Amino acid sequence: MSDHPSITVYRTRGCPFCVMAAELLKQLDVEFEEVFLDDHPDRQKVTSDILPGHHTVPLVVVDGEPIGGFDELRQLQAAGRLEGLLRGD
């Protein structure tokens, strides 16, 4: 079992917010899995099933807990809480 949380980013390739979310995570030097939903027939249902009411990408999930999209990542970073959350502190 890893000491670090499992991080998954549900995204599409052409979404600018998805690209920014992935870049932010890369800058923080954390490992994450990207699930590309470009060819999924109902990607809005996928994200809504994970986080009810969330119909867009990206959707970032940390240890099974959905935290939202790029805006939520930035808010957590501004509050000084993102790095600890992503590193399991």
CATH topology: Glutaredoxin
Question: Can you name the CATH architecture?
Answer: 3-Layer(aba) Sandwich
Number of strands: 4
Please tell me what the overall shape is: globular
Cα-to-Cα separation, first versus last residue: 16 Å
CATH superfamily: Glutaredoxin
Strand order of the largest sheet: 2-1-3-4
Q: How large, in whole angstroms, is the Cα Rg?
A: 12 Å
* SSE string: EHEHEEHH
Q: Segments where pLDDT lies below 50 for 5+ residues?
A: none
Helix content: 25-40%
> Into how many domains do the coordinates divide?
1
Tally of DSSP helical segments: 4
Oligomer: single chain
**Main beta sheet strand tally, sense and closure:** 4 strands, mixed
The proportion of residues in beta strands is 15-25%
- Summarize model confidence as the mean pLDDT: 93
Using the coordinates above, name the CATH class.
Answer: Alpha Beta
| SS content category | alpha+beta
List the helices and strands and how they pair.
Layout: E1 7-11, H1 16-27, E2 33-36, H2 43-50, E3 59-62, E4 65-68, H3 70-78, H4 82-87
What features would you highlight for this structure?
4 strands, 89 residues, globular, 4-stranded mixed sheet, 19% strand, Glutaredoxin, 39% helix, 4 helices, alpha+beta
Tell me what the structure shows.
- By secondary structure, this protein is α+β, with helices and mostly antiparallel strands.
- It has a single domain, classed as Glutaredoxin.
- It is built from four helices and four strands, in the order E-H-E-H-E-E-H-H.
- The protein has helices at 16-27, 43-50, 70-78, 82-87, and strands spanning 7-11, 33-36, 59-62, 65-68.
- A four-stranded mixed sheet has the order 2-1-3-4.
- It is globular.
- The mean pLDDT is 93.
